[in-house]
Amino acid sequence: MSEELRTETVLEGSDGSYYTGWEVTRRIRAGDWKCCLRQDDPDRQLVETESGELLLLAPVDPGALPARAEVRLEGEAARVVRTRQRCRRLRDRQYGFPDGQ
Hints:
The protein is of the alpha+beta class. The chain is built from 2 helices and 7 strands. It has a 5-stranded antiparallel beta sheet with strand order 2-1-5-4-3, covered by helices on one side. Strands 6-7 form a two-stranded antiparallel sheet.
């Protein structure tokens, strides 16, 4: 993994969250995260978070993101955001369906 991650790089964290290269680089530069280890083959990176926990990051294909996540570009920034999905029960109630139908 290069010192400067590409903006469009998407990484899966061992915490189950997804991050873009931009987010990781920004957090390391800001001092929120500290880079502990880098490995080239397989490509992955170990960082220490602000709370002192270790987080393993490995690149994934952006097309393989779960439906609840998407990459959004905002100027120079690229972030992985969780999309909100309405609870089925609330949606059903809104349209007058009883629970379980």
